[in-house]
Design goal:
Elements (H helix, E strand, L loop, with lengths): L12 E2 L5 E3 L6 E6 L5 H8 L10 E3 L5 E3 L5 E3 L13 H4 E6 L16 H18 L6 E3 H4 L13 H6 L19 H11 L6 H12 L10 H15 L5
Helix pairs in contact: 6-8
Length: about 240
């Protein structure tokens, strides 16, 4: 048992931030980020700085320490200008989890995989949140999913497949339609918007989709493979196999 005076056995300690406000929506999603700051103390300091207007509900260190910054019943300031499945105020509807990670910044040593101990700590925390708020698997997303024009985190090396093994997010579809199921790019982008993405910048929206669903090959250009993945995701949702 971890607790440490936090009232939650999954939380090691609290570093409470003043940066939060009242929610205007019920919790219906989780947004996963990376800090892109090293060391982790620098990220915690920024998220606790009243002048930064930035925070998150949790930060998980690379060693697997879970730190609470904002109570879940409050609106943390982690997603910024964002959109998902018709919700423009993602902060009000979500719980934000920051992962201590160098991100894509060259000055931090460059992008790399996530520590096993960090993901081992994320999984039970996420499982508790998803269960408590009855969050659909399709609403466990990355920052790039909800802010494709601005963000790329947690990036193409984030292990979504590990989360999917525990039914904490949607798995990558395996049974794909042969060929491109959409008649033209217009119908593809309408489907992408229907699934949940902001398609204001179409190339960035495609990159965000690829980063999540085909991370090994990111082009920003629709092709038959990502069209087939999107088609299957929508088909599974419409036929009630996923939420």
């Amino acid at each position: 048992m971890i607790d440490g005076g936090t009232g939650d056995e999954l939380v090691h300690r609290e570093v409470l931030s003043p940066n939060h406000g009242a929610r205007t929506l019920p919790v219906s999603m989780v947004v996963i980020h990376y800090t892109e700051m090293k060391p982790v103390e620098a990220a915690l300091e920024r998220m606790c700085d009243p002048g930064s207007s930035v925070s998150a509900h949790y930060c998980i260190t690379e060693e697997g320490e879970v730190i609470r910054l904002v109570p879940e019943d409050r609106r943390a300031w982690h997603a910024g200008a964002s959109y998902w499945r018709g919700i423009p105020d993602v902060n009000s509807a979500s719980i934000g989890i920051e992962l201590d990670h160098p991100g894509h910044a060259p000055e931090n040593g460059g992008y790399r995989g996530f520590a096993d101990s960090q993901i081992d700590a994320l999984i039970p925390l996420l499982a508790r949140i998803v269960r408590q708020y009855d969050i659909p698997r399709a609403n466990v997303v990355g920052h790039s999913c909800v802010a494709p024009m601005r963000k790329v985190d947690p990036g193409e090396l984030f292990p979504w497949d590990r989360l999917a093994q525990y039914k904490l997010c949607l798995p990558r579809p395996q049974c794909l339609a042969a060929g491109n199921p959409f008649h033209n790019e217009g119908s593809f982008f309408l489907a992408l918007e229907r699934f949940g993405y902001d398609i204001t910048d179409q190339a960035r929206a495609v990159e965000a989709f690829e980063r999540r669903w085909r991370p090994e090959h990111i082009t920003g250009i629709p092709d038959g493979e990502i069209a087939a993945i999107l088609w299957q995701l929508l088909l599974d949702r419409d036929q009630g196999r996923t939420r």
